[in-house]
Amino acid sequence: MLVEDEIESGEMLANFLELNNFKVYWAKDGKEAFKYIDDHADEIELAILDIMVPHHDGKEICANIRKHPVINEIPVLFLTARDEEKDEIEGLELGADDYIKKPASLNLVKAHVESQLRRQNPEKTAWIRYDHVYLDTEAKEMYLHDKLVDLTHTEYVIAELFFQHPKLVYSRQEILEHISDEDKYIFDRTVDVHIKNLRIKMKEEGKLIKTYRGVGYGFNREFLHS
User: Fold this and answer.
1) 96 and 203: one domain?
2) Are residues 212 and 164 in the same domain?
3) 7 with 114, same domain?
4) Residue 49 in contact with residue 21, Cβ under 8 Å?
5) How far apart are CA 140 and CA 160, in angstroms?
C-alpha cells in the first residue's frame, strides 16, 4: 500500500512498482488508506507512507497498522520530505521499519521495499477473509474489521466450517456431527441457537451465513468474490 497525496510522484511510483511485479493500492489520503486496510488487509504485505497527507497523517496510519490483527507485523516505510532527525526518530518509535527522504529515486525506493520484504518471515498466518470478517485459523479467532469477536469455541468451529467450504451447504445433522467432539451435549435444534448467536456477534456481517430452506446452513455464495 502506497500513501501519497502528490499525484504526479504517487502515480510515477505506483506505476514503477507495478512494472516491477508489485500489486499497489495507492491511497491519496488517510481516509482512503484506512479503507484499503479495511478491505484488503489480507493482501497488504508492506506500506509506504508519506507523513504529510490529508485527513489522517502517516503517523496515524502507521499506528493503525501496528494494532491491526492481520497486518501488524508488515514492514512500514516512511517516504517523506521531512528530514529533521526528530521526525525520523519519532517515525521509528511509532513502529516504522525504514525512513526514506525525498527526493528519492524510484530504484532506491524499490531497493528498500525488496530489502524489507526479504527480511520478513516467509511463514504467514493462515487467514481467511470474506468482506470485513477475518478468521485466524491458527489462533481460532474471528475479527470483524480490526476488532476481536468474542465467540465460543463451538461458534468458531461452525464459522470456520462455512468459511473453509463456502460452496457447500450443511444439514443440521452434518453440522452436529462436525461439532459433536466439541460439545458432547449438543442437540439438533441447538445448532440453530449457535448459528443465531454467531450471526448476532458478527453484526452486519451475519449476512455471510445463509439459511438454505429445507436443506440447512452454509456460506452466502453472493459474497464469494468479496
Assistant:
1) no
2) yes
3) yes
4) no
5) 9
- State which residues form the domain around 219: 127-223
Do 72 and 163 belong together in one domain? no
Give the count of domains, the chain. Answer: 2
Give pLDDT tens digits for 113-145.
988 887 765 555 567 888 888 888 888 999 988
Predicted TM-score of the model (pTM): 0.67
CB 63 within 8 A of CB 51: no
Round the average pLDDT of the chain to a whole number and report it.
86
Which amino acid belongs to residue 4? E
Residue 179: DSSP 8-state: H
- Given a contact cutoff of 8 angstroms between Cβ atoms, the answer to whether 57 and 27 are in contact is no
Buried b (16+ CB within 10 A) or exposed e, 191-215: beebbeebbebbeebbebbbeeeee
Q: Quick one: CA torsion of 76, 112, 7, 85, rounded to 10 degrees?
A: 70
Task: Round the CA-based radius of gyration of the chain to a whole number and report it.
Answer: 21
CATH code, domain with 103: 3.40.50.2300
- 3-class SS at 165? coil
Q: How far is CA 130 from CA 133, 135, 136, 208, 219, in A?
A: 6, 9, 12, 8, 10
